Structure formats: C-alpha cells, structure tokens
C-alpha cells in the first residue's frame, strides 16, 4: 500500500541540443577588404586599372573585382587570397610584395577572425611613373626615382 512506483524518465527528453552558430562570409567581403588594403599601398595599381572605379563598384566583373580572388576552407577556418597588381617602375618588387601580403593578412584576420593561410601576389605588368600618375590621378604620391649608378659601387 505505501509502496510508490517510481517511473524512470529518459533524460534525453529534457536535454536541449547544442546551439550551432554559423557564419558565412561572401567572397566580395574579402575582395573589399583587400581593395581597401591595396588603396593604401603606394606604387601599385590593380590589373583592372582604377582604384576609384573599383571602390565605387563601377566596372566590376560578375565574380567580383578583377584581380582579387579568395577561397575559403570552412573546415579549417582559413582563407587563401590571390591578388594581381601592376607595379610602378623603380619600386622594389620583394619589398612591395611583403608590404601587400602583411597588410592583407593583418586586415583579414582582424576583420573576419579567419586565419589567412596564403597571400599570393602576382605582378602582372610594370607601369611607368607617368602612366601611374594618369591611372591614380595627379594627387597620388609617386615613388622616388633613384639613380642606380650613384647607389651602386664595387667598393667594400
């Protein structure tokens, strides 16, 4: 009579499933970040030609901005970036590549939280200082042209 029946309850009925948070970042976001980084680098232009047109969204190709490509790996939370640029004659290519790669990697990591696994910079063409002024406009800073004969000597 005093015996109460206890019924076993499956605890799975009371457990809530874990919340899954998903964050998708479109390739245009990466292209925009890279474009802003490249706009702050002197002595280069996009293969497309005009930074102002790119920033304003004029002349974009269907897949985004010509010369800026990104590929995400959602499993490892990384992104690969490929950038095609023209460089002004007289600018050190290794130094400029390092500057571009560092700026892009820092900005993308800071803004998206993703690890940048690779920044591939392709220098497509060399542009004369006069062409660079036409492309960027008269207010754009130009690299200082140096006289290589004055800088080079055989003495140690």
TrEMBL record:
Highest rank taxon of the organism: Bacteria
Q: Which InterPro entries match?
A: Asp23
Q: Which family does it belong to?
A: Belongs to the asp23 family.
Q: What is this protein called?
A: Alkaline shock protein 23
Q: Which organism is it from?
A: Parachlamydia acanthamoebae (strain UV7)
């Amino acid at each position: 009579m005093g015996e109460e029946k206890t019924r076993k309850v499956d605890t799975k009925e009371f457990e809530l499933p874990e919340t899954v948070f998903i964050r998708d970042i479109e390739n245009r976001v990466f292209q925009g970040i890279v474009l802003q980084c490249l706009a702050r680098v002197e002595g280069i232009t996009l293969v497309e030609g005009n930074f102002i047109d790119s920033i304003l969204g004029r002349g974009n190709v269907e897949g985004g901005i010509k010369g800026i490509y990104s590929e995400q790996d959602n499993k490892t939370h990384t992104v690969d970036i490929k950038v095609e640029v023209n460089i002004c004659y007289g600018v050190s290519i290794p130094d400029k590549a390092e500057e571009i790669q560092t700026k892009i990697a820092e900005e993308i990591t800071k803004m998206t939280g993703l690890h940048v696994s690779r920044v591939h910079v392709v220098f497509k063409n060399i542009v004369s200082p006069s062409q660079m002024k036409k492309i960027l406009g008269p207010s754009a800073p130009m690299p200082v042209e140096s006289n290589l004969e004055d800088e080079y000597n055989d003495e140690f």
